[in-house]
């Protein structure tokens, strides 16, 4: 649910751009530091951005509504951490605006706050919390992706409610309106993305275990001791 | 053909050889006009100019431009209708509902057309180096450039794997379809890692030490183009303020 170009009033567009800036700059600094210390990781970071873009192009089966594509930022937050996703998510939003006509340039800041900042941080916090209370990787991933999606949808609804308060009931009434209207597509989408995340990580734990261990998502399996009794 | 219609149009556009900076100034000027000028006649003028320039001198295919403009319409329509419905004491229309909804749709369509004029005439490969001049760190531009180049490879993988899954009845039932979609996402992720690793090994073998430096393509700025852009934008602003 990207806010389309020109939809937000000028002051709101500027305000959300200013709000997104510190997070995107923080993400950019993290990326610059990573690339300076390990130039070879430029390609891995680029691959992470491309994966997030392509993940948002996968159509989820049997989810009603026209916007039945994952946001991809929840999975990105679990895999690559929220600060990096603040930058990669913003780059992906820019590409979506210029290559797919999803979102826009004046609404890039507002969309970045929802998709690249609030969604990934909320999803990652839910992932750590689930891990902390003893949930395994897959329950953590499911909760993270559902929470990231719901947080994104909630943030976008708040942005729209602030821009277009209801004539009688103000911002609170407008928030109820936008949450209600977009719930039809966004709640099934959140659950769908959670399920997709579980299926994705289940395959990865088998086919890409070394990568998940390197990213700190799985503990390395202890190597069998050498020189045992014959 | 890259697989994304807007990107294909940008590479084939008659404005492809124009300076990205010139096109950025014109299109951002139109975007700002669409945002701040009154919907009548500002948005109408911006939309008319953007469409005329795209389909006329820039020679963007009308079908590509039309399809891309229609994409955000569902959000714009639902959003505009929701904004002008009042929920205070039962459902009803807010005061000046039709005017407000029309203005919202007008701003969004005009702004969308202006962004599309940029997108369908300027490939991302030309725009990314321009970010360096806006003092975006080189490392960030490099990561964005790799993302841009890799996403077409991954989109092609996505399409091939999905076709193979469909041919093997991978989407014949709801359950199989979910399983196939999970496998598809995992395959795309592992391929992206594999591609990145292979590219990194190849570049390391060629002495990658200070980033991915390539010779930038020099597309000179055109004074007549800039002058026409400034005149056009001034005309839109004057006409809008005179009528409003």
Automatic annotation (TrEMBL), chain A:
GO biological process, alphabetically ordered: cobalamin biosynthetic process
Keyword check for Cell wall biogenesis/degradation: no
InterPro entries with a match to the protein in the record: CbiM (IPR018024), CbiM/NikMN (IPR002751)
A GO-annotated cellular component: ATP-binding cassette (ABC) transporter complex
Cell compartments where the protein resides: Cell inner membrane; Cell membrane
Molecular-function GO term, any one: cobalt ion transmembrane transporter activity
Pathway assigned in UniProt: Cofactor biosynthesis; adenosylcobalamin biosynthesis
Protein topology in the membrane: Multi-pass membrane protein
Keyword set, alphabetical order: Cell membrane, Cobalamin biosynthesis, Cobalt, Cobalt transport, Ion transport, Membrane, Transmembrane, Transmembrane helix, Transport
Alphabetical list of Pfam families matching this protein: CbiM
Chain segments annotated as transmembrane: 13-31, 43-60, 80-101, 108-127, 133-154
Function: Part of the energy-coupling factor (ECF) transporter complex CbiMNOQ involved in cobalt import.
Family membership: Belongs to the CbiM family.
Self-association and partners: Forms an energy-coupling factor (ECF) transporter complex composed of an ATP-binding protein (A component, CbiO), a transmembrane protein (T component, CbiQ) and 2 possible substrate-capture proteins (S components, CbiM and CbiN) of unknown stoichimetry.
Name of the protein in its database record: Cobalt transport protein CbiM
Automatic annotation (TrEMBL), chain B:
Topological category with respect to the lipid bilayer: Multi-pass membrane protein
Domain of life: Bacteria
Subcellular location: Cell membrane
Residues passing through the membrane, by range: 24-53, 73-94, 101-122
Keyword annotations: Cell membrane, Membrane, Transmembrane, Transmembrane helix
Classification via CDD domains: EcfT
Pfam short name (any one): CbiQ
An example Gene Ontology CC term for this record: ATP-binding cassette (ABC) transporter complex
Biological process per Gene Ontology, one example term: cobalt ion transport
Matching PANTHER family: COBALT TRANSPORT PROTEIN CBIQ
NCBIfam families assigned: ECF_T_CbiQ (TIGR02454)
Listed name of the protein: Cobalt/nickel transport system permease protein
Organism expressing this protein natively: Trujillonella endophytica
